[in-house]
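Two proteins were folded this term; both appear here.
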Amino acid sequence: MTAKKSTGVGTLTGGLLGLLLTLSCLITAFWFSWHGLAQINFGYSLGYKMLHIDQHIQRYGPSNRYRDNFELTSYDQHQQLFSDIVSAIQQGGAGLAQITYTTPDQTTSTLLREAEVIHLQDVANLITLFNQTALGSLILLLILAGVYRWQKKPPPTLKHIATGTLIALTVIGLGLLIAGPTSAFYWLHTKVFPDDHQWFFYYQESLMTTLMKAPDLFGFIAALWAVVALSLFGLGQWALLKLLKA
């Protein structure tokens, strides 16, 4: 009885360690891919063309209630403005209120209203929290790898990892399919951002959402991020298993 109980506890402990190892690797992969994609502005130039954001700006720029002539700005300015936003949220929100655009008559205006600056500051704070969480996951990953290596524990098999990942993705995918991507997007915002901070902006009141053609661009970025992160996760798991078996 004691031997069986000991075996059961050992199996449970091994399973928990394997789960933590996989989750920490997954979070780390999403973290590295986020900061990697930030270096290329999350593929904005590609999304800009695929989503016809230029036409979107031409349509909604003239109807903005607070800023004038944004529809007269160029493709290069649009790329730079998005890059400025990415740089700011990656640096804790510094410089958001100073982002400006210039029209052909050399009139310079700030891109973001106060409510938009507050919202993007919330996003920057969320990224900071993500950085802290991911750093903890990276440390945990290194510790667990050391435990497996030192105690010579058999690492999770590729089959187990693939099965677990597939189940998780299936559950998430079905949830998004049932709720709808847009509904899920809005629900997430209500849970993440402070109640008294505006996070939904109509195109007619926000050049930020016009520039991004929100939420369409977010869907594009999410898909790109998922592809890169899961590819990196798979590569990381393969390299980790090779290391632990060596």
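Next, the second protein.
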Amino acid sequence: MKISVKVKTGAKKEKVEEISAGVFLVSVKEQPEKGKANQAVIKALAKHFKAPISEVKILSGRTSRLKIVKIG
């Protein structure tokens, strides 16, 4: 499954919410430094979709707030 993800970094609380069909807002505590926020996004999505971390991949948008992510 491919989804679009909008990332909010530096949030007080980590959460994943669907803002429209197939588009998710992922809030993470980490800052976008050295891939820390991307790793946090992967972990948050894996937890939300109950999938192994190894099955969550960022297909595009590694350095952007807007990402395309593949799960499964």
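Helices lie at 36-49. The beta strands are 2-8, 15-20, 23-27, 56-60, 66-71. These notes refer to the second protein only.
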